[in-house]
């Protein structure tokens, strides 16, 4: 091992140990559960500090960022085309995986180290075998630090950066940006449990990425590149963007409805409002069989609550089984809900045996504030799945 590599390993190990020591001070405090939007945005915290053409400062820590002028948008668009070959959604998906895939290489190394190689070195050309063995031996220096996580955090951060940049200059729209970022965030959430491990993976990843970028040679710039990224990671923790005692809930939700299925169903009055729906609808794909309008809990909340109809009491009492999303998106699971959105607070609507939504309770009608039994539970799982 070269003196430079020894210094790099010592620096990363010391950095990780310092983070772990700081975490011990807050380990007994309640874990902060990040909402999905915040989690998605901060995963690219490391490259988010990087200045890009057309982005005078940096893209910040909101998932969606837009260039402030047409000139800046055009400059960023040209940069993504010239450097990465990104012109549209198709090339974005292709190129983000083409440029940032060092975890795949690490996975091949790890399988070989465990005695279960994914392929035989004899199947490679002499040049390919040389590149593989040099990279494997270099990655071995970092194995004890990153373990199974490998260099995944570096890939995820850089890919999200490209997705956000493509959105910022108009190559993709906001909805596509969010969908693609969620795909990356889901992988992060499945593989990591905290920002300490995520940061360690990113730092080791930056070292390996620079090693590969320099022609798989260990030049002097390796230490300098690590130092820059360590300073950025330090600031992320100091500013509590990456919190020592925070992460997103596991089992990151994946919506059953596909992006191309979503239509603009609502008028201006209802656009930009939100509703709360059960995961039986959002993730499992069942159509809406019960609608209840409650008092809104905020200026953007419509008050509408949507259920598949088969949720039992334990399910209803667990807030993790529900999601607050754009009202238009929720209505796309069952477009016939749109006709009822102007009904007053207290209204209960249930899908009958004929498959039609009918109003079963309207506050103040027939002298009753809560008439009707509101039981739509028999219609949920037997109804055809709308999506998924």
Question: Assembly state here?
Answer: single chain
Relative helix content: 40-55%
Number of strands: 8
Q: Any idea what the radius of gyration is? A: 25 Å
> Helix/strand-derived class?
alpha/beta
What's the mean pLDDT score? Answer: 88
Number of helices: 14
Tell me the domain tally.
2
Order of helices and strands: HEHHHHHHHHHHEEHEEHEHEE
**Amount of beta strand:** 5-15%
Largest sheet: 6 strands, mixed
Shape: elongated
End-to-end C-alpha gap: 51 Å
Descriptive overview:
- With 388 residues, this protein is an alpha/beta fold.
- A six-stranded mixed beta sheet has the order 6-3-5-4-7-8.
- It contains 14 helices and eight strands.
- Helix content is 46%, strand content 9%.
- The chain is elongated and about 80 Å long.
- The model is unreliable at 366-388 (pLDDT under 50).
- It folds into two domains: 3-248, no CATH class; 259-379, no CATH class.
Offer a concise description of the structure.
With 388 residues, this protein is an alpha/beta fold.
């Amino acid at each position: 091992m070269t003196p430079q590599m020894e210094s790099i390993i010592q620096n990363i190990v010391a950095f990780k140990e310092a983070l772990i020591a700081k975490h011990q001070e807050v380990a007994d405090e309640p874990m902060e559960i990040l909402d999905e939007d915040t989690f998605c945005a901060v995963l690219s915290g490391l490259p988010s500090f990087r200045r890009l053409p057309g982005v005078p400062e940096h893209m910040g820590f909101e998932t969606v960022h837009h260039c402030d002028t047409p000139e800046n948008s055009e400059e960023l668009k040209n940069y993504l085309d010239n450097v990465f070959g990104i012109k549209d959604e198709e090339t974005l998906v292709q190129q983000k995986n083409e440029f940032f895939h060092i975890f795949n290489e690490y996975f091949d190394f790890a399988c070989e180290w465990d005695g279960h190689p994914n392929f035989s070195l004899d199947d490679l050309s002499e040049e390919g075998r040389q590149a593989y063995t040099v990279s494997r031996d270099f990655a071995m220096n970092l194995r004890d630090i990153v373990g199974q996580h490998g260099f995944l955090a570096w890939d995820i951060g850089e890919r999200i950066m490209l997705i956000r940049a493509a959105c910022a200059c108009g190559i993709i729209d906001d909805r596509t940006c969010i969908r693609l970022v969620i795909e990356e965030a889901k992988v992060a959430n499945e593989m990591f449990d905290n920002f300490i491990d995520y940061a360690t993976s990113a730092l080791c990843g930056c070292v390996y990425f620079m090693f590969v970028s320099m022609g798989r040679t260990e030049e002097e710039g390796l230490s300098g590149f690590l130092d820059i990224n360590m300073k950025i990671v330090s600031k992320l923790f100091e500013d509590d963007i990456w919190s020592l005692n925070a992460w997103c809930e596991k089992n990151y939700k994946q919506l059953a409805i596909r992006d191309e299925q979503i239509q603009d169903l609502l008028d201006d009055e209802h656009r930009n409002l939100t509703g709360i729906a059960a995961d039986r609808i959002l993730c499992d794909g069942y159509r809406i069989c019960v609608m209840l309008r409650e008092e809104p809990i905020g200026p953007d909340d419509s008050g509408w609550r949507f259920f598949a109809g088969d949720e039992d009491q334990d399910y209803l009492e667990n807030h993790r089984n529900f999601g607050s999303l754009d009202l238009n998106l929720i209505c796309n699971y069952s477009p016939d809900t749109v006709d009822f959105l102007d009904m007053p607070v207290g209204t209960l609507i249930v899908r009958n045996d004929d498959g039609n939504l009918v109003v079963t309770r309207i506050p103040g009608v027939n002298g009753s504030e809560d008439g009707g039994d509101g039981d739509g539970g028999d219609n949920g799982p037997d109804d055809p799945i709308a999506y998924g």
